[in-house]
Design goal:
- By secondary structure, this protein is of the alpha/beta class.
- Strand 11 (282-283) and strand 12 (287-288) form a beta hairpin.
- It has twelve helices and twelve strands.
- The strands form four sheets. The protein has a five-stranded mixed beta sheet.
- It has helices at 13-22, 29-39, 44-47, 61-75, 91-99, 101-125, 149-159, 163-176, 223-233, 250-256, 268-277, 290-294, and strands at residues 26-28, 79-81, 86-89, 180-184, 195-201, 204-213, 220-221, 240-244, 247-248, 263-266, 282-283, 287-288.
- It is globular and about 60 Å long.
Length: 296
Amino acid sequence: MNEPLIPIYIEYLWPTLVVIAEHGGYARTGEIIPDVIARMDLTPDQVAVEYPPSAKAKGSKIVHRIRFALTWLREMKAIESSERAVWRLTPIGRGFLAAGDARVREAYNEMKKDQQHRAKKNTLEDSRAPETDTPQEPSDPDDYATEDSWKATLLDTLTSLAPDVFERLCARLLREAGCTDVVPSGQPGDQGVDGVGILRVSLLSFPVYFQAKRYQASQRLGPEKVRELRGALQGRGEKGILITTGYFTRSAVEEANRAGAPVDLIDGDQLCDLLLEYGLGVEHRPVVVPEFFSDL
């Protein structure tokens, strides 16, 4: 069976820029990816197309290409990023939005020509290398990984964990974040709650219930998952956290922020950042440490 066709890299630049603008000029990678997928009307079958195990790039090809769009937009000075992967629209980016898609494509081609010029210059200045007009950068981005490719490796590791092991990892994360008496249920049919801990804020303390959902990194969770957790909280507590290796749709985020819906969301991208922040299975180079997850 043939794989469904997916857009080439340049097609993601404009939708990615528009999505960041729609978020008010600031957005996390985990917010951008599902919204770009939705804006481009990409199907689940397209998103599910992954690289072979032997490839340097990992996971969904479409997710990889959106991440590259972010990298290139930063190279084009259209956006900037913080250490926690929050992307910010720059004045140049706003100018691109005003000028339209064609200007973004033009700026991309200008950037690639500049990269080729610099690569050629570096080659000519290296006495150990023969003169060549071939740029050092691979022509196909599929041949190499994005700067945060460690996240793809980490998410691949997380999705391969047994459900109870992933729940224990989430419980460990809550402990590191300041919760006490964290107990994962570890039981099938746990009625929508995978564990509970106690969070103390000054003189007050209250229970925090969490639900851990292992999904493919490209899979999107809708508002029904938020409502499911909220329903499980009835009669139990006032605070819930939904942790997943996938992404949340915009409607899921809106549902979680709705009045009377005390649910915080942690998507796959945020989960990677938190595991790095607390040193859980990820070293600060960053490098994924598979042995950590085998000992949970």
